[in-house]
Amino acid sequence: MISSVHFLLLSALMFMIGAAGVLLRRNILVVLMSIELMLNGANLALITFSRIQANTHGQTLAFLVVAIAAAEAAVGLAIVVAIFRGRRTTNVDDLDLMKN
Amino acid sequence: MASKGEAQRLAKLKAANQDKPIVGAVAKRTKTKGGLMNQLVFYILFSMIICFCLVTVTRKSPLMAALSLLVVFLSLAGVYLFLQAPFMAAIQLIVYAGAVIVLFVFVIMSIGFDEERSVEDLGKEILFFAMAFMLTGAGAFVFHAGSGLAYLAGFAAMELLALGFVILGKLQYPVTRFLGIAAVTFALAQVVRLVQMSPVFIGKTVGLKTHMGAPKHLFAAPTDGSFGNAKAIGQSVFTDNVFAFEALSLLLLASVVAAVVIVRSRKETKEQTS
């Protein structure tokens, strides 16, 4: 028998690993992937709570989150490509255009 | 007034979908259905997700990160099936595994992938991780049955083993690395088990009640198989959440236009405007 605690634990761990990736990694592509991990962790929590309550609205919200994550990935990667064209780098530490 | 409005909303909801139970009106609660086989599959998926998340975050090569992210998404679709969300599982496969990963790999390839390691090595490494984590998932499942003193002794032994293999793992021998990763994930599973055995969780299992009148860690029992299928989600999206849906379509249009505008180089823009 699998209790809901295990699903929530999985979602929390995914979110934490993703957050660690966003904070610690220097490669902008890996940072974007870590954001996807965090979104997936949140989605798993939503679907678990939806199942706990036997209420479809949580799954609907997760569906909307998936669409937003896809849009975010498209725009984010477009920005990465644009930056790489101009500056030949994917290191977030080199992206200090707004400094000074 | 607020409670009256809430009652009206619930009544309306009940009328709208009579076959589905609503919040607060759930009589019977269960854990997820199925026996040992289901648990085995779930814990294998669990350990695979955690470990490939770690691979995604820690690998140097972005291509390796993208491929392990793909494994995470595929396993997560399996977990969604355990939660009776077949529609979300399908969406996960189509949108994440199908579209987002392809986009990532495409960008990685187009901006150059200057790793000395070949794709064959990456495949080998992925296979290596997959095997390690399937094994540890199975191990965690077997250990799940143990309890009491035997369990604590096993836990201590696993921790020592993990420590030893992590130290040996630095020696770059594939076998010790494999065992080291396996032992670490096994130890992680044991920590989960230890937390479960702590007084708070034991209190829950002997019947601490929530405000809903049911133990917190149990699932509501859906009345039929229609929970979470495409029809139920569609009904929810196009009736109760139709504004969110319309806003989302606008957002997607905006993001498509934004992506095209951002990626188009300045030269092209100048040529077109002049």
Structure description:
The complex is a heterodimer of chains A (100) and B (274). With 100 residues, chain A is mainly alpha-helical. Chain A has a single domain, classed as Helix Hairpins (Orthogonal Bundle), CATH 1.10.287.3510. Chain A contains 3 helices and no strands. Chain A has helices spanning 4-24, 28-53, 57-87. Chain A starts with a helix and ends in a 13-residue tail after the last helix. By secondary structure, chain B is mostly helical. Helix content of chain B is 74%, strand content 1%. Classes of the chains: A mainly alpha (100), B mainly alpha (274). At the A-B interface, helix 1, helix 2 and helix 3 of A face helix 2, helix 3, helix 4, strand 2 and helix 9 of B.
| Average of the residue pLDDT scores of chain B | 69
CATH architecture of the domain at 32-145 in chain B: Up-down Bundle
Distance between the ends of chain B: 63 Å
Give the topology string of chain A: H per helix, E per strand.
HHH
Structural class of the secondary structure composition of chain A? mainly alpha
Q: For this structure, what is the CATH class of the domain at 32-145 in chain B?
A: Mainly Alpha
- The low-confidence runs of chain A, each spanning 5 or more residues with pLDDT under 50, are none
Descriptive keywords:
heterodimer, A: mainly alpha, Helix Hairpins, B: 274 residues, Four Helix Bundle (Hemerythrin (Met), subunit A), 11 helices, 2 strands, 1% strand
